[in-house]
Amino acid sequence: MDLHLGFLASHRGSNVKSILDLISTKELDAYPEVIISNNADSAVLDIAIERGIPNYCLNKKNCMDVDEAIAYILKKHDVNLVILAGYMKKIGEKTLNVYPNRILNIHPSLLPKYGGEGMYGRNIHQSVINSNDLESGATIHIVNKEYDKGKIIAQYKIPRYILDTPETLEERVLKIEHILYPQTLIDIQKGIISLDL
User: Fold this and answer.
1) Nearest Cα residue to 1 out of 153, 193, 197, 160
2) Does residue 47 lie in a domain region?
3) What is the mean pLDDT of the chain?
4) Domain coverage including residue 170
């Protein structure tokens, strides 16, 4: 599968950068077509500018229908796989309908645990620490209408240590996200992972 990627991110874009780095070294055969953020001050837009990738800030301040605008921009740039990387908004039905089974998200827990509305950032890691779980990790799943309920296509587990804090756990999970997301895209590109349900 030829990968023409459209990225959606809200803040730093560290997962976007990890994927772009693999593309630049030719370890991942893919084309970064566009980067969209809902946050005009996000570092991911700076990454896009530095690398010469078309980029847009789309939010309620500048769009009457953000969902429609996202779907339009992705199609305009010939995207065939949408990558959510720390995108803090729910994907709307118009975008879901244009890209069925072609929108991926990375979540910093071992879904189905610690997913759903309100489960993001350190809230997730604090919940893991409050539990009796001895491991955590990251999950890549296909996006559907419900938060974190789509088909799981990849996971990476790490130990949760007794002395972990939300900050230390977050740091370790983020490091493995940077490995898992690019590798998953490589496996999709090679046909090892199927996105069709």
Assistant:
1) 193
2) yes
3) 95
4) 3-189
Is 51 domain-assigned?
A: yes
Q: What are phi and psi of 31, to 5 degrees?
A: -125, 115
- pTM of structure: 0.95
Q: Which of 4, 11, 77, 107 is catalytic?
A: 107
Q: What is the CATH number of the domain that holds 65?
A: 3.40.50.170
User: Tokens 């995207």 appear where?
Assistant: 79
| Confidence check: pLDDT of 121 > 70 | yes
Whether the per-residue pLDDT at 197 is higher than 70: the answer is no
Question: In total, how many domains does the chain have?
Answer: 1
Q: What is the DSSP string of 53-113?
A: --EEE-STTT-S-HHHHHHHHHHHTT-SEEEESS--SPPPHHHHHHSTT-EEEEESS-TTT
pLDDT tens digits, one per residue of 164-181: 999 999 999 999 999 999
- Catalytic status, residue 11: no
Supply the pLDDT for residue 27. Answer: 94
Q: Which helix (H) or strand (E) holds 171?
A: helix 166-189
Q: What is the DSSP letter of 159?
A: E
Query: What are the tokens at 133?
Result: 């779980």
16 occurs within a structural domain: yes
Name residues whose C-beta falls within 8 Å of residue 2's C-beta, 6 or more positions apart in sequence: 29, 30, 31, 80, 189
Is residue 197 included in any domain, yes or no?
A: no
Is beta strand 103-107 parallel, antiparallel or unpaired with respect to 81-84? parallel
